[in-house]
Design brief:
It contains 10 helices and 9 strands. By secondary structure, it is an alpha/beta fold. It folds into 2 domains: 151 residues, Rossmann fold, CATH 3.40.50; 116 residues, no CATH class. The strands form 2 sheets. A 5-stranded parallel β-sheet has the order 2-3-1-4-5. α1 packs across α7 and α9 packs across α10.
Amino acid sequence: MRFVIVTGMSGAGKSSVLKMLEDAGFFCVDNLPIKLVKKFVKLIMQGNHDKVALGLDIRSGQSLDELDVVLKDMKNAGYPYEILFLDCSPEVLVKRYKETRRLHPLSQTGRVDKGIEMEREKLDFLRKKADVIIDTSHLLIRELKTQIDTIYIEDKNFKNFMIMILSFGFKYGIPVDSDLVFDVRFLPNPFYVSELKTKTGMDSEVKEFVMSSEAAKQFMNKLEDMLRFLIPHYISEGKNQLVISIGCTGGQHRSVTLTNEITERLAGLGYGIKTEHRDIDKD
């Protein structure tokens, strides 16, 4: 039997994941009182369910503190379980709450960001126990479903690390959630070539122009080498997402080309990789 405890930050997508697992044949139960968890596990062990998912989160209130003991008892009793923790950056969570106009479970009439901070502290012990951590900050629903299918349906190995590679224009500001920022304004600018001005780094002509520069080739080689060195160290320190931002002046030519190029080079590492061109459609 496969028993998955689905937990994580409020607004990170737990309800969506439970629906995905239910569609995949899992018997799903959400927000079960902590005091009933052991009894629930005993019942499903005796039943005929081979795939079960249980949603637990901050809505359990003070009882959540008892979950650590319950999990230890389950482990000692030989009840197998795995924990899926859905995470998300504070900035994105605040944005989601503002868009839905919902109250955070711990914010009540106060500020959402304070509620998120308190929740993260209370859920830290679950995050540390998690077998799988998925950061949904930059994931579309279909991309999240692909990851869920990969782990829980196709049963493939999953590395708890997501690489977000983002192109941007410095004239529009540096992305606030960047971990690493690279300035490629030192490269020849296609904007000043009349036949390339209205095109972007998604067009082959612009890509060929940018990558024909010896400096661009050397930069790519050095960047790839550095990232291959850094990523394992970030992982060993417990980081589960890396946002790499590559910027040029307007975010349409050089940064787009190099973002696509480094994405191709890192694709074989086995981590989740997503590319976004933030300013490609701006004037």
